[in-house]
């Protein structure tokens, strides 16, 4: 069956469920369904270890009886099962507490335009080809350098899916998507030292992935380069977050400006709308309709239309991010962020990666972050790290077992430069980020 037919069938199911809900006493209702078919292959030491096929799907419905909410879900799409699911949701709603902020987003906020965002690029889910790709990556890694003595495996994943959302305001829309990824992790040894590192690639398109050989060789090169890692003395120095890990810094910013944390008054950026948070030269734009974007969507998880948004303008906090519930709590308007952000593109200062090292001079290049020692309430930041010590713009030796610490408020304000070579493998697209001064705790 063609993908368009499958989506149309699911839309009919969503229509039926919403009609049932209204007939059984719901004042409002919403239903969503996702369906995923995929293959996952893992190899270890050039031998296939696992082959998994996925064929998952389920429908969830939320009903509102006045200001009471009930939710239920089912993987059985028969008429009887759907009717029972609706009944269960209605029953739950009758027993839940009344909440004045619950309910669908306002009808005028619903998406009405659904352009093709080029998210669906199907390719036959061929297990033989998947095995070949995984083994090819691992072989390239193991053959790269004799110091690569073992492998933690290579993994190839391909998923084709679809999502449909509808509610009693009249929206009933769906779209297909695809996602492909390949990763490889290796272990290298020299004398008494052993190190582990990895590389990965991800894309909506199968031909958008890096080649298996390049992923394997990158994993091996990353691992070998960490041999001979040292501890360093505690100091206050510039820190350069490599683009592979820099997106996490902006992930903390997302949390701090999200409505859930704001109405709970648990964010260090509460009441800071319009305040100077980053340097004046920094802009961050959200582009939800980016063709082929990994976080692109015409509407959020509540059917609210997404739109281009300047989330940071001239370094100032330009917008908070609200779901329907958090917006009502704060007496604001939903911003289309139920389910997360949509392709943040972080501005840059024009430096390539080499120029960023030269700009830093002497300090720590961080390529790995560990632990979750970050408080969105206070902004306090403390995470384990590994990377490379840099002097006069030149990498000197690998570093491990260090902690980098500061406060997000200072870290944001003290960003000196951002690289133009962006990592585009997630919802935040950013280059490496140079922070003027952080405490690096070592031996």
TrEMBL record:
GO molecular function, one term: metallopeptidase activity
Highest taxon above the source species: Bacteria
Keywords on record: Hydrolase, Metalloprotease, Protease
UniProt cross-references to Pfam families, sorted A to Z: PmbA_TldD_1st (PF01523), PmbA_TldD_2nd (PF19290), PmbA_TldD_3rd (PF19289)
Domain Metalloprotease TldD/E N-terminal span(s) in chain numbering: 29-93
An annotated GO cellular component: cytosol
Record-linked SUPFAM superfamilies: Putative modulator of DNA gyrase, PmbA/TldD
Record-annotated Metalloprotease TldD/E central domain positions: 120-227
Family the entry assigns: Belongs to the peptidase U62 family.
Protein name (Swiss-Prot/TrEMBL): Metalloprotease PmbA
Lineage of producing organism: Bacteria, Pseudomonadati, Pseudomonadota, Gammaproteobacteria, Alteromonadales
Name of the gene encoding the protein in the UniProt record: pmbA
């Amino acid at each position: 069956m063609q993908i368009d037919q499958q989506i149309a069938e699911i839309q009919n199911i969503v229509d039926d469920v919403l009609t049932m809900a209204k007939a059984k006493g719901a004042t409002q209702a919403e239903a969503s369904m996702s369906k995923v078919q995929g293959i996952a292959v893992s190899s270890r030491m050039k031998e296939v270890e696992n082959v998994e096929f996925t064929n998952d799907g389920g429908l969830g419905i939320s009903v509102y009886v006045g200001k009471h909410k009930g939710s239920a879900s089912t993987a059985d799409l028969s008429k009887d099962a759907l009717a029972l699911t609706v009944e269960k949701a209605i029953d739950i709603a009758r027993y839940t507490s009344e909440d004045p902020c619950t309910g669908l987003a306002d009808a005028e906020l619903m998406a009405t335009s659904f352009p093709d965002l080029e998210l669906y690029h199907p390719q036959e889910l061929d297990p033989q080809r998947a095995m070949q790709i995984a083994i090819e990556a691992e072989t390239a890694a193991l053959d790269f350098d004799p110091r690569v003595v073992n492998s933690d495996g290579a993994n190839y994943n391909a998923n084709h899916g679809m999502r449909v959302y509808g509610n009693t305001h009249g929206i009933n829309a769906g779209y297909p998507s695809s996602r492909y990824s390949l990763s490889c992790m290796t272990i290298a040894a020299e004398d008494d030292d052993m190190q582990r590192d990895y590389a990965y690639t991800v894309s909506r398109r199968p031909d958008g992935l890096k080649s298996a050989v390049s992923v394997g060789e990158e994993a091996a090169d990353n691992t070998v380069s960490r041999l001979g890692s040292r501890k360093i003395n505690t100091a206050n120095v510039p820190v350069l977050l490599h683009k592979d890990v820099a997106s996490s810094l902006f992930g903390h910013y997302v949390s701090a400006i999200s409505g859930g944390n704001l109405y709970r008054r648990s964010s260090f950026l509460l009441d800071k709308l319009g305040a100077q948070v980053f340097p004046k030269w920094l802009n961050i734009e959200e582009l939800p309709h980016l063709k082929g974007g990994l976080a692109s969507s015409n509407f959020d998880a509540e059917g609210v239309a997404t739109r281009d948004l300047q989330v940071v303008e001239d370094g100032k906090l330009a917008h908070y991010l609200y779901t329907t519930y958090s917006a009502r709590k704060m007496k604001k308007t939903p911003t289309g962020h139920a389910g997360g952000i949509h392709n943040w593109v972080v501005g840059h200062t024009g430096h390539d990666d080499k120029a960023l090292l030269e700009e830093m001079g002497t300090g720590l290049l961080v390529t790995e972050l560990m632990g979750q020692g970050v408080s969105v309430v206070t902004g306090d930041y403390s995470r384990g790290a590994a990377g490379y010590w840099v002097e006069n713009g030149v990498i000197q030796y690998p570093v491990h077992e260090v902690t980098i610490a500061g406060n997000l408020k200072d870290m944001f304000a003290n960003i000196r430069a951002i690289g133009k070579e962006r990592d585009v493998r997630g919802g935040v697209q950013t280059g490496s980020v140079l922070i003027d001064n952080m405490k690096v705790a070592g031996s």
